[in-house]
C-alpha cells in the first residue's frame, strides 16, 4: 500500500511553473566555452540534402495583435493556423500546487483564439474559438483538417471538425479536473500537445504533471501509455509531439530532460513497441520546447536554458539522431514555443510567447550544387 500512496502523492503534487521567460542562468551549464556550444561542427556529406530554414522578411506584413502564441499547425491549403491566449498570461498564481486552475472567475477568453492566416501575407483570413478556452496550449490540424487543441486550465483535449467550430466532436479528459488515467476513467493533467496518425489514432502529450504520452484510438479509447510502467524510459515534461509514421515512432520534446525522445508508436506492430526509444541528446539542445517533422527530418526549437546555450532552431536526422544544422532569424529568438512544417516541406513556422510573434521560414538547400 505504501508504494501506491507514494505514486498518487507524486502524481497529484507536482507543481508546474509558468511558461514565462525566466532568469535561470544557473539552471544548467555545460561550461564557458561558448564557441563550442554556439557553433556546431557540422559534418554533412555533399550528397545529403539539408534544407535550412531561411527567414522570410517582413512577414506577417501587418501586426496580428494577439497574445502569447502557444501553437501553430498547417491546414491542407498550406495556411498556418495559430492558437493564442489573448490577454491571458500564465504566471505563478495561475495554478495551485495541486495543478488546479485559480482564475475561473475570469471566465473563458472572450476573443477568438484560433486564427487562420494567409500564407503569403500573414493576414487573418478567419478566426474562431471565442468563449471556449481558459489557457490555450497545443493545436494540431490533422490530415482531414480537423483541429485538435489542448487547454491546460481545463485539463482537456478537444477535436473540432471543419464544419463545426462551436462544439467539439470529441473531448478527452474532464473539465477542470486534474488527474491520472485509470481504467475506464481518463483524466489528464495539463496536456500540452496532440499528434494524429493517418489511421486516426491519437497521441496526447499528457504533459506537465503526468509526464507521459497517451495513445488513443479514433474514438478516444485509451490504448497505450508511453513510457510503460515496466520500462526504464522516463519523461520530464513532454511539451510537444510529432509522428514519423514511416519509422513508426512518435518523437517528443522531452523539455526538462533537454532532449528529443522517439519511442515506437505501435502503428505497424505492437511487437516492436518494447524496442528502446531513440534518444537524441546534445550539450547545445537545452530545453526543447517543440518538435515537428517532415520525412526523416525533425525540426526543433529550444527555449531559455542557460547563458551558455543559445536559443535557436535545430535540424535533426531522426534515423541517426544527429544534429545537421542550427538556425534562427536575423534578430534571434527570445522564447519560442511551437513550430510546424508545411506538408510539402517548403516552409516552416515558429511562434513565440514573448514577444508574441510568428516567424515564417523558407526551407532551402544549404549547398550550391551548380
Automatic annotation (TrEMBL):
EC class: lyase
Cofactor note: Binds one Zn(2+) ion per subunit.
NHL repeat placement: 122-163, 188-219
Annotated Ca(2+) binding sites: 72, 139
Superkingdom in the source lineage: Eukaryota
Amino-acid biosynthesis found in the keyword field: no
Residues the entry annotates as binding Zn(2+): 137, 239, 337
Cleavable signal peptide: 1-16
GO CC entries: extracellular region; membrane
Keywords associated with the record: Calcium, Disulfide bond, Glycoprotein, Lyase, Metal-binding, Repeat, Signal, Zinc
Name of the protein in question: peptidylamidoglycolate lyase
